[in-house]
Structure formats: structure tokens, C-alpha cells
# Entry
Amino acid sequence: MIGWSVSELWPAWIASGVVLTASASSLGWWFARRRSRISSSAPSYQLELLDSLYNNSPIAFALIDRQGRFLDINSDPTELFGYTKAEMAGQPFSTLVDDGSHDVTLQMFHRTLKGDKCTQEIRIIHKQGHPLDLNIHTSPLIRRDKIIGILVFIQDISDHKRTLERIRHMAYYDDLTGLPNRRFFTNRLEHKLKAAMANGISLAVCYLDVDRFKLVNSSFGRDFGDMLLLQIAERLTRCFPEAGDLAHMEGDEFAACLNHLQGDEDISKRVSQMMSVLEEPFELKGVPIHITASIGIAVCGIANEDASTLLKRADTALHRVKENGKNDFLLHSSDMEHVALQKLTIQHEMRRALMNNEFLLYYQPQYDLATGQIVGTEALIRWMHPERGLVPPCEFISAAEESGIIVQIGDWVIEEACRQNKAWQDEGMPFIPVSVNLSFRQFLQRNLTGKVEEILQQTGLDSKYLELEITESMTMDVQRASDCLKELTDKGVTISLDDFGTGYSSFHYLKNLPIARLKIDRSFVRDVQQDPNDAAIVAAIIAMAHNLQLQVIAEGVETEEQVHFLRSHHCDEMQGYFGSPPLPSAGIHQLLQEKLNRSAIPIS
# Structure
């Protein structure tokens, strides 16, 4: 060895008063504690003890001279450094240190040579070339009140650092795609927002949702759905060269940060690029899958706006895109917040309205076009709001559908319509059916028939005086629709198809489903006198329905000319303001009494 050997120096260290703190290592604490206990009359124990520590300490420690060169190391350094003792002897400690830790190591050694005890994490390079993370503690080596070198305690913390990195990765990165997760993206966005505000840079956030992703999961399974998300993430990454600007938030949702924007055209260009990378079909199980996405965008334009608020605004814009038909992008505007808050308020108030009996039914008469007699009514819901007065259904039905409360409201409508119709019958009014619109969510209930049957039993109304109206979209699953409608018709309930001509208008379900009546949508009836195409469509629907042994009722009839047109084409019934607007139950009661035995509309 160059200089002193450790075995020669141990007595000198003790004699010169070297003190190693417990924070440096348990060895230093033991040295200090034992030194106070060792009697000067038994110096041999010092040598044996220190020799044992030198050879058996679980912590490696090395002796460095004032020039930073290795003098000695207590354990075989081959496993830790890859070098033997002979190779390390006389070599500068700095030759092992990674460039990134060079300066801090040099500063630590300088401080130690001035008498300080230091602790530092550094990185060295193993002989085989891979990095190692070390936690080193340094203490000055003193002889006769003079610092003659440095004692360095060395602990390999590479495994510990890797474990911490894995934990950090699990906390901040998505396990499926490897992209940053919501936590990482939100934290990073906070920093970018502060920088953008300070430097006057325009910044935007995009919130992306994969359209109809649930269909992929249900068709191929979740494992293949995850594979698709992985492929989508890979393609989107092409649009964001800076790491951290794209994140997988959850499920089929991604978020992205757009930096250094040059205006709305720049936003449109970048977002269009994101959508274009998804245009090429993906492949799952050999089947080409075409994917589209909906994107909401929010631009940072408010001082002190935080990341959560910006993400919320982008998410609000995304929901508006989904409502408008998907496969598009939309920039957030201030009115969206009002609409979203209004929806939440309405949904809360509708639940209260059900509990407080604020809903009520209006009824619009249906007339036989041949005789003018009232032959039925359609129940139409209204909401007597305690503050806003009478609220029409167009202002709350969509919110009810979205929240799911439409099911409870729909059940109430059926029950109230049946109860009222039975009450009219008990008062001697004509026995006519009442029509009730079924919502899509109601129709999807497995126990729909059971609910209807229970309501009929509770109200005492004969099933033939209840008619349920469905829309064409409900019949897409023909087998399920057929089974459900057959159960209802077997109980005596009549089924009619509402708004005919505005949906799929398939002859297949007209032939296979137990439908008794078609209702021609008001959009065709409105212009039968002015538009030859609408006139031809209405005439064709009537002829087709009669050939299929179905009755036809026209909605939205408002003029005498429309009545004459419908009668000339042998339409069975009509409904609209020409006969009567929707009326509360008392109004219908009066109308039925007045028109009990004569025509309700002038027909010549």
C-alpha cells in the first residue's frame, strides 16, 4: 500500500483523538463508545477490536489521502467497484465518480479536509461500465492535531434507489400505456401554467375520449381493449415529442398539453393532427377497427387559473362534443359552464319534484278523421316548478335521460295516466285508451312488463285502454324488442310506433314486431300542402301501413287543409292543435262531456 496501512494507523487514530459520529455509521459510534471504556492498562484489546472491525465490518470504508488517492479499503472492493485492492491502490477516488457527481464529491472532500463531517449521495461507474448509487459519509483522519486524510464510509444504495424509482413510476405513470397518469400530468401542468403566465406564452389542454370504446370491449374483450389503448397511445405520442405532454387519464381518456400556441388556427391544426393519426384502421384479431375520437379543448386565458380548473373546462367541452355526435373537437366557451351547472341543478330539482309531486300530466285528444269523435288521448308530462312555473318537457327530458331519473319519471307517468283514465271511466266518460311514451331507458328494463302489469292491477284499468308508444331506435335489437313487446301485447297492451319516418324506417321490424299503429311525425305533416315530397311520403306511409294492417295517426295537424289531405288519403286518426292543444285533466274532462255524442272537429 502507498502511505500508511490501516493496521499501522489504528493506534495513531485513537491516540490522536479521531471521533466518528453515530450518524456516519454504527462503526463510528462503536469506536467512540469503546474508546471511553478501554482501559489504558489493556491496550491489546484496542488492536484486536479494531482489527476485527477492519476485517468484519458489514460497511465498507476506505482511507483517502489529502490528494484524494486510495490508501486502503477494509473489504474486497471487487464486488462493489469491479476493481481489486491492488488496482485501486494509489488511484484517485475521482476516477470512479460519474461526471454528474464529480463537483459535489470534490466539494465534500474539501470540506472534510477542513474538519467537517459530510454525507452525500453520489454516483460512480463500475469497472464494467454500469452506474452505481452510493451513500458516502466522510470524516477527517487526524494525527497529532493534524488532518492527514479522509475516512470514507461507503454504502451501496443502488437497489434502494431502483425500488424508489419503481414506486415513483407506479405513482406517476400508467401501468398499461407507460404514459404519465393524471397525478403526474396535473402536477406538471401546474408548473407549465405558472411558466406560461410569467412568460406570456399561450397554452391549451386537450381532453380526448375514444368514441364507442365500450363496443370494442364488449366485442373483443377487455384484454384486446387494452391492446387497442396501447396502440392509440403509441400513435398519439407521435404528435408530442416532449415527454410528459401526453397522459393516459383513465379508461379510454387521454389528456394533452399544447405549448406555444399561435392562435385558434394553430390549435385547430394540432388537434386535427391528433385526430388524423387515428384514421388508419387498427387491427384486433385480424379484424380492421376504425376508431374516432372526441376532443374538448380549453385555453389558459385566466390569471391564476390552476390545472384542475383548466382540465375541468376541457372535459366540459368534451362532453358537449359527445352530445353533438362525437368524432369532432370543440373549444371551451364560457356558456358551457352555465349549461353544465344548469343540468346538474335540473337533475337535482327533478328528484325533488318527484318527491314533492311537482309533475303533472296534460292530455292531447286524438280524433277519428272519419267521424271527428275523440278516440284517445296522449299523456304529456309537465313540471310545475315552484319558482319557474310550468316547465315544458323540452327543457328537462334530455337531462332526465342523461341522469337516469327518466325511469322513475316514466313509471310515474304510466301510473298517473292509468289512474286518471280509470277515474274518467268511473265518472261515465267514454272508454278510450290513453297513450304514454316509453323512454329508451324504460324500454331496456328487464322487468318492464311486470311493472306495467302491476300498475294496471293497482289502478284497475283494463289493459286494452293503455297504449305504449315506442320509437324506432328502440327496435334495433329486433329479437329483444320482439320478446318484450310480445309480453306486453299478450297482456292486452297496445303498441304504437312514434315519430315514424324520422329514424331507420325498416320494413323488417314492421313485419316482425307486434305493432298496431304508426304515428306519422309532425315534420312530414307540416308541409304536405307546400312540399310535394312530404305529401308523397305521407301518402306512401299511409298506404304501406294499411297494407300491413296497421292503423295510422298523423301528429302535428294544425290546419283544415292538412285535415282534408289526410282524409283524402284515408288516414285513420289525427292529433294536433287543429283539434285541441294539450289540456290538464280537468280540461279533457270538460271536452269529453261537451263532445260526448257529436264531432269534436268540423269535417265537411
About this structure: The CA atoms of residues 470 and 497 lie 5 Å apart. The longest helix spans residues 334-355. The radius of gyration is 41 Å.
